[in-house]
Design brief:
Layout (H helix, E strand, L loop, with lengths): L1 E3 L4 H5 L24 E4 L3 E4 L4 E4 L3 E5 L2 E5 L1 E8 L29 E15 L4 E10 L4 E5 L3 E4 L3 E5 L2 E5 L4 E12 L4 E11 L15 H7 L9 E13 L4 E10 L4 E12 L2 E11 L4 E5 L7 E3 L2 H6 L5
Antiparallel strand pairs: 1-3, 2-5, 3-4, 4-7, 5-6, 6-8, 7-8, 8-9, 9-10, 9-11, 10-13, 11-12, 12-14, 13-14, 14-15, 15-16, 16-17, 17-18, 18-19, 19-20, 19-21
Keywords: Signal
InterPro entries: LPS_export_LptA (IPR052037), OstA-like_N (IPR005653)
Protein name: Organic solvent tolerance-like N-terminal domain-containing protein
């Protein structure tokens, strides 16, 4: 195990990453593709040859493309780079463990394939941000898993929070909140569930019925962040699903919400409440834009409703 000061920073910055380019739709807080990772730290760098890790302490930062990870401590997991087909094998490693053609401590070309962040974790790009106490980012899979208190992901359009675990899957544009998870939009609409899985659209996606502009895919793939912040497409909820607008609350066992249409479908022990009015049933279609809820027949229970006269006269009751 070796310890070095920040004077050796250029060695770590120069570590190349030979990962394949991700598809053009990858966006958000994505470090799975792009140029080399730059590492910065304030106190000490500890290199463990046996574990093949480098630990940066005292406040550290990793930067790749437009994405930055800040934390009290960063741990980089290293591996020898796989040989490129068609290129000659590296020179034999001498007895001291160092390659004759390289001055790095592992004796060959290295790549950083995983980053672990501990303490006051903040991952961000120009538009999106995430916070947690601990994070693990797998650069091969493009998956970030955060744990700790006050977990949160933000975009210009919405905020995702959870109590236990928060995941971001760059290659599928999927965010997962586990434990009292909530998505809140800028216009005050909210989707809440025990487990909430949301999918975002590809950046610069053409409108329905329109084709992509010439050169759009190429432009997207050249930008590691996919051209900016993504927009949520839909969210799936399991367990104690709650939909809220300023005037209406709907609950169910599970459901799906489409952000463009602002229409949700709830299934299982559905309750739709507006003021003192309430409808109960097994299924419902809820238009969170108009405030109209349509109860659907089911097999487990009949549709039931409670309408308070003064409430019905002052506001539109759910249907």
């Amino acid at each position: 195990m070796t310890r070095r000061s920040a004077a050796f920073l250029p060695f770590l910055i120069a570590l190349p990453l030979a990962l394949p380019s991700a598809p053009a739709y990858a966006d958000g807080l994505d470090m799975s593709h792009g140029e080399a990772v730059q590492l910065f730290w304030k106190k000490e760098e500890v290199y463990d040859r046996n574990a093949q890790t480098v630990t940066l302490t005292g406040g550290a930062r990793a930067v790749r493309g437009d994405t930055t990870v800040d934390a009290d401590t960063l741990i980089g997991y290293l591996r020898k780079k796989a040989p490129v087909p068609g290129q000659p094998a590296p020179a034999p490693t001498p007895a001291d463990g160092k390659s004759a053609s390289s001055n790095d401590p592992m004796g060959g070309s290295l790549e950083l394939y995983r980053i672990e962040a501990r303490g006051n974790v903040h991952i961000y790009n120009q538009t999106d941000q995430g916070w947690g106490d601990h994070a693990l980012y797998d650069m091969d899979q493009g998956v970030m898993v955060m744990t700790g208190k006050h977990l949160k992901l933000t975009t210009p359009q919405d905020v995702l929070t959870s109590r236990d675990v928060m995941e971001y899957h760059a290659k599928t544009r999927m965010s997962v909140g586990r434990g009292d998870a909530t998505v809140t939009t800028n216009d005050g609409k909210q989707v809440k569930a025990d487990v909430l899985v949301s999918f975002s659209k590809p950046n610069d996606a053409p409108a329905p019925g329109q084709s992509a502009k010439p050169g759009q895919a190429a432009a997207d793939s050249s930008n590691p962040m996919g051209g900016g912040s993504s927009k949520l497409d839909r969210a799936y909820g399991w367990g104690h699903v709650v939909l809220r607008t300023p005037t209406q609350t709907a609950t169910g066992d599970r459901g799906v919400y489409v952000f463009d249409t602002q229409i949700a479908r709830l299934i299982g022990h559905v309750h739709v409440t507006q003021g003192q009015n309430q409808n109960n049933g097994s299924q419902a279609i809820v238009n969170m834009k108009t405030g109209i809820a349509t109860m659907l027949p089911g097999t487990d229970s009949p549709i039931q409703g409670l309408v308070v006269p003064n409430e019905a006269n002052s506001s539109q009751a759910p249907k």
